[in-house]
Structure formats: structure tokens, C-alpha cells
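Researcher: Structure for this, please.
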Amino acid sequence: QVRLVESGGGLVQPGGSLRLSCASSGSIFSIDVMGWYRQAPGKERELVATITSGGVTNYVESVKGRFTISRDNAKNTVFLQMNYLKPEDTAVYYCNARRKPYYTDPQYYWGQGTQVTVSS
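Model: Predicted structure, C-alpha cell format:
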């Protein structure tokens, strides 16, 4: 099992910044992709950003130029730097990890989520 714990959420004003962290523990070997999802009330969970073990990143169009995902491969820790936050960024943000040992199907793990609220 892989345990993911997010931190860094909170209340900020529009235009402000937050840095989210996701620490992993347990069977963390063979994790190749980590990412962040978010879910607003009444909406489906959406992918925000992903990063591979090689550092290749992908972002949803709405956060490009504002958010930056990074990771510490040795510790399987992923970060999300969020700048120029907008009210529409308000959501619960979830950390996700993909684990793919050789000769197995991929497994996906989720953190408990951290609340991000952007409001004046």
C-alpha cells in the first residue's frame, strides 16, 4: 500500500499564492507518475497537473503559466506551486500516484485531499 498525505492548503485572496506538498510512504518503489487533481463542490474531479519520474510535466489549460508541479524523486514527494490564484481555483486538491512494478497492472493511490479556497 502507498500512503499519500497532502498539506499546504488554506484560504488566500485572488492573486495570492500557495504551495501544496504531497508526502508518500509505504510501498513507494516503482512509482513512475505523480500528479494533482482537484474537485469543486458539485463537479467531477479533474486532472490539474502530472509529472513523470523523468520530469516531463502536463497541465490542464486553465492553470498553464500559473501553476508549477515538481517532485523529489528520491523521496517520491510532489509539490504544486500555485500563483495568481483565482476564485475558480477553489477546490479540494488531491495527490495521486501511479505505481507500476514490472509484470503487474498499474495501481493508483490517492491522498485525503487539502482544501484550497480563493476568496476576497
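Researcher: Any notable elements?
Model: The radius of gyration is 14 Å. The first strand starts at residue 2 and ends at 7.
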